[in-house]
TrEMBL record, chain A:
<dbReference type="InterPro" id="IPR048565">
    <property type="entry name" value="S1_RRP4"/>
</dbReference>
<dbReference type="Pfam" id="PF15985">
    <property type="entry name" value="KH_6"/>
</dbReference>
<feature type="domain" description="K Homology">
    <location>
        <begin position="170"/>
        <end position="207"/>
    </location>
</feature>
<dbReference type="InterPro" id="IPR004088">
    <property type="entry name" value="KH_dom_type_1"/>
</dbReference>
<keyword id="KW-0271">Exosome</keyword>
<feature type="domain" description="Exosome complex component N-terminal">
    <location>
        <begin position="27"/>
        <end position="63"/>
    </location>
</feature>
<dbReference type="GO" id="GO:0071051">
    <property type="term" value="P:poly(A)-dependent snoRNA 3'-end processing"/>
</dbReference>
<dbReference type="Pfam" id="PF14382">
    <property type="entry name" value="ECR1_N"/>
</dbReference>
<protein>
    <recommendedName>
        <fullName>Ribosomal RNA-processing protein 4</fullName>
    </recommendedName>
</protein>
UniProtKB/TrEMBL annotation, chain B:
<dbReference type="GO" id="GO:0035925">
    <property type="term" value="F:mRNA 3'-UTR AU-rich region binding"/>
</dbReference>
<protein>
    <recommendedName>
        <fullName>Ribosomal RNA-processing protein 42</fullName>
    </recommendedName>
</protein>
<dbReference type="GO" id="GO:0005730">
    <property type="term" value="C:nucleolus"/>
</dbReference>
<feature type="domain" description="Exoribonuclease phosphorolytic">
    <location>
        <begin position="29"/>
        <end position="163"/>
    </location>
</feature>
<dbReference type="InterPro" id="IPR036345">
    <property type="entry name" value="ExoRNase_PH_dom2_sf"/>
</dbReference>
<dbReference type="GO" id="GO:0000177">
    <property type="term" value="C:cytoplasmic exosome (RNase complex)"/>
</dbReference>
<dbReference type="GO" id="GO:0034475">
    <property type="term" value="P:U4 snRNA 3'-end processing"/>
</dbReference>
<dbReference type="InterPro" id="IPR050590">
    <property type="entry name" value="Exosome_comp_Rrp42_subfam"/>
</dbReference>
<keyword id="KW-0271">Exosome</keyword>
Amino acid sequence: MPQKIQIRLASHRVSTSVAVNQRYPKIFTPGEVITSQNEFMRGHGTYEENSDLKASVAGVRQQVNNLISIRPLKSRYNGEVGDVVVGRITEVQQKRWKVATNSRLDSVLLLSSVNLPGGELRRRSAEDEHMMRQYLQEGDLISAEVQSVYSDGSLSLHTRSFKYGKLSQGVLVKVFPSLIKRSKTHFHNLPIGASVILGNNGFIWICPIINNSEDGASGFIQNLEEVVPRQDRETIGRIRNCILSLSQSKMMLYDTSILYAYEESLKYTVPELLVQEAMVDVAILTQQRLCMLEDT
Amino acid sequence: MSLCEAEKTFVLHGVEENFRLDGREREDYRPMELETDIVLHAFGSARLRLANTDVLVAVKIEIDVPFPERSKEGKLEFFVDCSANATPDFEGRGGEDLAVEIANTLSSAYRSKHAFDLTKLCILKGKKCWKVYVDILLLECGGNLFDAVSLAVKAALWNTQVPKVHGVNIDGNNIELNVSEELYDCDRLDVKNAPVMVTVCKIGEKCIVDPSVAEEQCSVGSIVVAVSGDKFSTVLQTGTGSLHPATLMESLKLGHRVAQRLDEALWATLRQIKPGQDVGFLK
């Protein structure tokens, strides 16, 4: 039975705010004076003009001792060494792949920084160069770690670990990079029956539970024959809609918040979670539970 | 953005299973948001947002001379503009083909007199008529452009106010029209049967409606049906794949059924509109 088609008037739009007690942080707009006292240091997202410190992006203020910076909500991804990212191959070049990672410039994955099938350490031969497209081709999704940042801000990635590599069946969700909470691990096997990779670059990968088999070649093999069962599919769809609900209300994304949102969403069916009211409801309930967790 | 094989497989199996990426069934639509009277200096306007697809339509009218072979009819023209803000693919002349395709489909859908009565736009037979320009701006692309555009066009035409003509002075070849100066002394256009378009997308063996960008990439071909009232006004096939006659009939039936549900939903929303409720882009 298909659902009713919903066309809502813009004047009936629901507010997506979940701020506790209506307390909003002050948001600076570009050009706004942050402070006129000149004992502060100029951090990211700020500039100095006529001895005033002004914001160059729209965001909230962060201060560490004398250093003032403005953290924007919406921005491209600024990579840091050690970050986990999810990206899409855009180009195959000589000895390197270009990867779209939501940064200003495409990132680079060198042939020498991937684990090739058949052993840890072996020389990269000319043959490997010819085989590059067999390993990863345009459009493929990978998970990787930032190895280094070049002087122009572009990133060099590596997949030298069993947990990184080519991604198989699943769904990619894109959110603002600033909504991903930094934590020890960004790979989560959620107990509800799905795996989530929270890329620091705002790309989130949701897929059926991965069984970590420790054979080196697994990084480049996709199983296209396997049909994901209905139950897994529903879980994945629900997590996807929950993440979008949280990101619509600008809530931080990490394993606990996603799990709570999932549990709170169970009273709705998966397609119902596309409706604004339900999305805001899930976000508010999640926010409340997170606050309770903080208080205790 | 191009998907990899594994993602496509996942989408394909989901369609077979009748459980798509976001949990919808094959015949489900994503929720939409509609707003009319959003451009102040236009005669009528509407903005429709369907997930990430954002369409702004403005209607402008002016007095013109009818075509000699259709002396009793007014004129209706569509123009589509693909903003490069929508997707980088539209940069330069990139969106032109798509724009022309949408505009042509719309004008062929509105051509029938059962869909939209052009004789109502005639002021003086053979001499003067209204010419209606429908300008469509694509602000964002999130899949399913045709459906969103057709709904927005219908809402904008519904919203259009045509000034009343009180009198005509004919002096030889000189024709002077006495157009009402009052702001609210206007006629509404009759859009009861204005066509609604539905894109039926074939993925694997099954057909779906309202495809997202990812689903559009997995499809081999799709059919756009324009339905006015309970009749087809235009059918268009897009994409590279070909369709089996049985599949074609099936997708036509599906499109017809869905278009009527869509039309109903649009009218229910249009009836709720009260003046002075505008929200605008900033909020």
